[in-house]
Amino acid sequence: MEEDIKIKLNLLIQEATPLLKGNDNEYIEKAFELSSKYKATIYSEPQLVEFQNKIIDIATLAVTQIGLAGKALVSIMLHEIAYDFISKEVIIKEFGSKVSAIVDSLNKIKKIDTTKVALHSENFIRLMLTQVEDVRSVLILLAIKLYEVRGLKDLNETEKDTLCKELSALYAPLAHRLGLYSVKTEMEEQSMKHLHNDMYKTIAAKLAETKSSRETFIAQFIEMLKNSLDSMGIAYEIKGRPKSIHSIWNKLKSGRVDFDRIYDLFAIRIILDSTIENEKADCWHAYSLVSNIFRPNPNRLR
Q: Among 172, 195, 210, 285, whose CB has the most other CB atoms within 10 angstroms?
C-alpha cells in the first residue's frame, strides 16, 4: 500500500474511532486491502490509487457528515468488488451477515433506473426505502452522491445535468426525509448552482446586499437575549446563518412574494448544553424567553 494511501486510511479510522466497536478497525483495514487486491488485477497503478482515494473519501464523508461507522464503512470498502470478485458467502464468512445485507441492499438500490425521477420523485423515494434490508445502505448511497457533488467540476456537461437533476428530485429530498439537513442543503445548493445559475447568482447578490444589516440584527438579537438566557444557569451558544439560496428560491417560485417581502432570510439557532433528562424542559424554557421578547408572527411563518 502506498504511504499516502496508508496515512489517509489511518486518518479515516482515527476519525471514526469514537464510533467504532470491538474489532471494527481491523475489519475496515481488511476490507480495504481485499478490495485493493482484487482491483489491482484489472486496474493500472494510477487507476488503483484513484479507486483507493475514492472509497476512503466516501467513507470519510459517511463518518463526518452522516455519522456512520463500523459495518457501514466495511460495506463501503467491499461493495464495488461484490459479487464480481467476492461471493456473498465469502462476505458473510469473513465479515458477517449484517455487512452482507448492507452490501446487497446498496448494490440493489444503485441499479434502480432514475432517468425519470423528476416525474415521480416520491415514488422513487418509497421504492428505494422499501428495497433495502438495512437503512445504512441508503445512507451510504447519500455519502456516495455527496462525494460526486464535491467532484462536480470534473464531470462533463451531460453527467453534471444528470447528477444535478437526480440531486434535486431524489437525493436531497431523501436526505431531508432522513434528517440529514446539511447534506440536503449542500445537494440543493450545488444542483441549483448548475441547473439555474442565473437565479442562483441573483439571489446570492441580493443576500450580499443585505449582509451588513442581517449581521447587525443578529448581534442585536443576541444582546437582547443574553440576560434572559443567562438566568437559566446553563451554558448556551447562539449562531446566526442565512437561509439557503435554494430555500429562498422555493419561496420566490411560489409566486406569493418577491424577494423584498421574504422576511425569513436568515435563521438564528440557540444551542443549549443541557442534560438528556432536562433537554425538553430547557428548550421550552428558552423558547418562552425568546417569545417574550420577539412575538411570533404566524403570517410570516407560512
A: 172
pLDDT in tens, 181-218: 889 999 999 999 999 999 889 888 887 877 777 778 77
Between the CA atoms of 185, 191, 197 and 201, what dihedral angle is there, to the nearest 10 degrees?
10
| Cross-strand pairs, 97 | none
CA distance 75 to 69: 10
What's residue 302's pLDDT? Answer: 44
Q: Are 74 and 28 in contact (CB under 8 A)?
A: yes
Amino acid letter, 222? I
